Fold each of these.
Amino acid sequence: MSTVVLSVGSNLGDRLARLQSVVDALGTRVSAVSPVYETDPWGGVEQGPFLNAVVIAEDPDLDGRGWLDCAQALERAAERLRGQKWGPRTLDVDLVTCRDESGDVISREDGLTLPHPLAHLRAFVLIPWLAVDPDATLTVTDAVVPVSRLLADLPAGDRAGVRVTPLVLGVAA
């Protein structure tokens, strides 16, 4: 059994429908979905705000590479084009962390870096994650750190750029 934390975001087209497409495609594998947040763009590229959420999912048959393949398939289904780094996108599905029976999956393979190397710097990942898992931890530089501490260490302006919305992602029963 593996459990993955996915950060999903969109700032093009029907942003909410793009996020919902991830939840729908994962179906009964979804164990938790955060509230939806509107967030300022990250990375210095001029663009519109994102809708972001965190989805936690489980699958006995997927490992880190399997989850990456799944995430990329979801992006392709949303017609994601990989153009400008940190630029606008129809759908971004990032693997934040993957855990199996032995703990956090650590990977530095070509194309698969786990845990996500920038997750600890992104309020738009940490805030939604804490909303569904207040005891979450993340391995950062070989140390397991509470996500709440990582969030507290971010600048106040970064945290203020993540605003909860009344929007909700539906989960299949």
Amino acid sequence: MFEARLVNSSTFRKVLDAIKDLLNEASFDCSENGIQLQAMDSSHVSLVSLNLKSDGFDKFRCDRNLTMGMNLTSLGKVFKCSGADDTVTMKAQDYADTVTFMFESKKQDKISDYEMKLMNLDQEHLGIPDTEFSCIIKMPSIEFARIIRDLSQFGESIVISCTKEGVKFSAQGDIGTGNVKLAQTHNFDKEEESVTIDLQEPVALTFACQYLNSFTKATPLSNQVKLSMCENVPLVVEYQIPELGHLRFYLAPKIEEDEN
């Protein structure tokens, strides 16, 4: 038996909104530790990794490890039927071919439930190696989303370069070039507005705007975003989900030869 209850169904809806453009379908791996998802996007350029800890749920029970393959468009339709303040309970029997979602309104005067068919998905698990990153940037997630959106108008790629002076985002294309530089700032009253850079050595890498823009759909999940970079290693874009876990995106850098 698997049962997981979240007081705020909107958190799960935000997770779905953040990944549904990258993934058509995905397997949710449930164990006593929580729920995990790991999948490559359809073009095999980026990787999505979600981890929701069992103790972040209001109630969590998983008697045996269970993998639930789901179509994310269908799952999104189910969650569109929920109210913003609803509580959601997910239930599935061992070896089940369906999963049930029950939504309860705050006043508990309305309860709706939806059953969804599960899929058998053949998804490989990729080992993500531990990396010593050259540079780790933490910044407001809204600011990151705005920079990516603005610079996407100039070109299809964005160069993120990090030095002890700060972090610079650059793009160039037919209409010209755009650069945004951020210096480190510490706001002790509002930690989420700080820009912090943990630099081992300077690094500059080029990434496809299309994917960075998709990642910023996770902005509503967290006030801050963490960017971890190292030469010849995928960029890690991480959004902490308060008290519940994290959502990470991995994106391989573009190789310069492409441009010649």
Amino acid sequence: MQNLIAFLIKYSHWFLFILLEVIGFVLVFQYNNYQGSVWFSSANVAIGKVYEVNSKIASFFSLTEINKQLTERNVYLEQQLTKLQEQLNGKPKTVDEVRRIRQQVPPEFKIYPAKVVSNSLDKLDNLITIDKGSADGIRKDMGVVSGNGIVGVVYMVGRHYSVVIPVLNNHSNISCTIRGRGYFGYLRWTGGDPQIAYVEDIPRHARFALGMSVVTSGYSSIFPPGLMVGKILHVFNSPNGLSYRLQIKLATDFGRLRDVCVVDNSGMEERLEMLRTVQDSLRGK
């Protein structure tokens, strides 16, 4: 405290000078209109600058929160844009896919459009999951097709989802025929290239050419006849030399598979059952 008092006494003349200066400026600006207006204008400019700097500083420190809000908004808008694009692009594609399948499947067969929700290509026993189940009328052993060709056979059915054994599965075994020739064999996939499969057991006396179409034979209750399977690329002899083995390029692109239809085969099952009954009756005579 003594040091403070000594300091004030030592520099008291300076404090007195500053006080008198302040009083002088106040008197000048308060009782003179011109000087008062100059002071008022200058003060406003200075205060405005101070407010401007303060506003910029506050804005700078609030940028983090603003950026966070903008990021959240952008994510929301991206999600809305994706949904809109799916509505604009996905629905017509699905409708077009169903129309193409409808042109291939006989009119007496029902078809159930479905979406592929999971799919694999790199395994020996690949599986596909679709978003339709027993609640939608799907049953085990129904055929599954795309707009380009066959996909596989329903293997397991839940209430809202089903598992499909596709052509790209070592256990798949679908009856096929060469279009316009009547010779039939069995479609099998041996792994590797998802676009290549083989038709086994084509008779040696069969006549055909490379590039011909291979379609479903209709000899089972799974697929109606005439559904596209693929085109012949090469011809090999079977290991025992008694038949041909056809290498075909599959019509269905499993890597881009999104929309499929499940074929209701109840009508075909009824016809095959009647045929078996007639055959059994003829054998009994």
